Amino acid sequence: MSQEPRNIYGGQAVIEGVMFAGKHVNVTAVRRKNEEIVFYEVPRTSKTWIQKLKKIPLLRGIVAILESSAKGSQHLNFSMEAYAEDELADEKDDAKAAQKEKEGKGGWSLSMIVGVAIAGIISFIVGKLVFTVVPAAIEELLFGGANLNIVVHNLIEGLIKIVFLLGYLYIISLTPLIKRLFQYHGAEHKVISAYEAGEDLTVANVQRYTRLHYRCGSSFIVFSVLVGVIVYSFFHWDSMWERIYLRVLLLPVVLGVSYETLRFTNALRELPLLRYLGYPGLWLQKLTTKEPTDEQVAVSIASFKRMLELDRQMGKA
Questions:
Q1: 225-239, pLDDT tens digit by residue?
Q2: What is the DSSP code string of 40-75?
Q3: Confidence of residue 99 (pLDDT cuts 50, 70, 90)
């Protein structure tokens, strides 16, 4: 069993693969239909002012979320392109498919990378706004005329959000592509857990670990709902539009506090009593992760090992 220091790493599932974020580089490994594992490697760079913001409580959470959305969208787009090429190869003869792949490997221009990053940020913001505004509007339409305490209104709104979230995740998990994405999500968690435990990263070793992990973004989603109930209770509204306006205005506050709450629960997860604070996020991961196959775990291991290798090389440069 390896005795090297255990660093903290994170990642995300992509189409037919896994991305891991290192200190100096982000690496995605994707398995193609010909069983070849291909890699997409992007050095991590960040402006000085962004690094300073990431040290400020509350603000650092918002910066980290937007940065993760931007960079993660690049890797997801790479995996989608690889998947599309494989689907195209099934419809065309080998010569044409090979030519298509050759043309597609010319690399990403700076404008392409920036465009995908911006699209990732916009998608996150729009999705979060919809998830915030719609439940508030529904609660106001159904219970706005009821003589209820503001905290009760917010609790009902939170319940509507949870129902929406669970229903959405369940429905999309029924599609074959998303089910495989959730399996790769589970493979990502297993590799990180095995690494943090000091295990040699073999398929057999990694498969022994749980697919659930405390630091998963699924936990952040749950905390954002719970924190929203508390934050919104400090502000009164007189109409639906005022209520929605307050939700949008307070969204950065909710995200920032949720991020800090997640960090707090992660730091305390080894304490017998306080570790239960992270359980809601683990329960949600029952939907957002699935048990991976050995082949999927092998892809995740390949991505993680390549990230470690490049991280060491760049750290010595």
A1: 888 888 988 888 888
A2: EEEE----HHHHHHTTSTTHHHHHHHHHHHHHHHHH
A3: low
